[in-house]
Write a structure and sequence with these properties.
Elements (H helix, E strand, L loop, with lengths): L4 E3 L2 E4 L7 H4 L6 E7 L12 H8 L3 E7 L12 E2 L9 E2 L1 H11 L12 E10 L2 H8 L3 E5 L5 E2 L1 H6 L3 E4 L9 H12 L10 H5 L17 E2 L2 E2 L9 H19 L1 H10 L1
Parallel strand pairs: 2-4, 3-4, 3-8, 6-9, 7-8, 7-10
Antiparallel strand pairs: 1-2, 5-6, 11-12
This protein binds S-adenosyl-L-homocysteine.
Length: 264
């Protein structure tokens, strides 16, 4: 119950009381993700690697995986039960999850635009680059990872939890969705990527998919790099990339293309 492992600035806290931001060693102002999960060992997962991992170690953002199990009922710490009305599978209990959510929201800003409270769910509002951008401007987020058939509706209603979806498919649990959304958000935080310009140019930033990339060697398997990219003419390069991005977006994502035209 008191076992606690800390790798860098990651805290996995199976205890009932969260350590304060100060105790965690992450600067209080750094963006924080609190994730309620039955599988805290799944974190940081991929987030612990590469740029997001380095930023986590450097304290540019913080992660707290809150183990749902200790909130469970009885000797076996049960967290789920059979669905009311019958049917297959199990549902995460309202009382168990409610206690975890209550704890995870303690001490966070009340304004939900500054600190959203979300549940990963295929029924949710689709997560997009705009969502990541909005979240990255806040102070942090609390996420609830569902498992089994999902969670008791009353917890969603009582805490006004917003459901967010990774896409139109069904995962086994919310953990991969949470990591994906945290990754997309954290890389937008100042100093995480290092090269801020790459954020402005990449896919979705201007409502377009990104142009193709090339690097050495100049010729490979008989294929050459488009000569304009080797011309040294920056204006020409920019024009070519723009036209490639537009052609790609029109061909692959007519929905995005239509939205882009609206904005112009
Ligand atoms: N019975 C549910 C699916 C449960 S899947 C339904 O039909 O809607 C188990 C858990 O995985 C969910 O509670 C959710 O937290 C997570 N999950 C599954 N698919 C997801 C998706 N597309 N986006 C975000 N979370 C998802």
């Amino acid at each position: 119950m008191t076992e606690r492992r800390a790798r860098g600035r990651l805290a996995i806290t199976p205890s009932l009381v969260p350590r304060s931001l100060e105790q965690r060693g992450t600067p209080a102002m750094a963006w924080q993700a609190r994730v309620i999960t039955l599988f805290p060992e799944a974190f940081p997962g991929v987030l612990g690697l590469s740029l997001t991992g380095k930023a986590l170690k450097d304290g540019l953002w913080g992660l707290e995986a809150i183990d749902l199990r200790p909130f469970g009922i009885g000797k076996h710490r049960n967290v789920d039960d059979t669905p009311a009305g019958g049917g297959a599978g199990m549902v995460l209990r309202a009382d168990v999850l409610g206690r975890a959510v209550h704890m995870a929201m303690r001490g966070v800003p009340e304004d939900r635009t500054v600190w959203p409270l979300v549940c990963l769910s295929p029924r949710g509002r689709p997560f997009t680059q705009a969502t990541a951008r909005a979240w990255s401007r806040g102070r942090g987020i609390t996420m609830v990872c569902g498992r089994f058939e999902g969670i008791d509706q009353r917890v969603l209603d009582h805490y006004a939890i917003e459901e967010v979806s990774l896409g139109d498919f069904v995962l086994t649990g919310g953990e991969l969705a949470a990591q994906t959304m945290i990754d997309a958000t954290v890389r937008l935080l100042p100093d995480v990527l290092g090269n801020a310009a790459s954020i402005e140019e990449e896919s979705f930033s201007g409502g377009l998919l990104e142009h193709p990339h090339y690097t050495r060697p100049a010729e490979w398997e008989g294929r050459e790099i488009p000569s304009v990219l080797l011309s040294g003419n920056h204006a020409e390069v920019a024009r070519w990339r723009r036209s490639q991005a537009e052609a790609l977006t029109r061909a692959r994502r007519p929905d995005l293309w239509a939205d882009t035209e609206h904005e112009v």
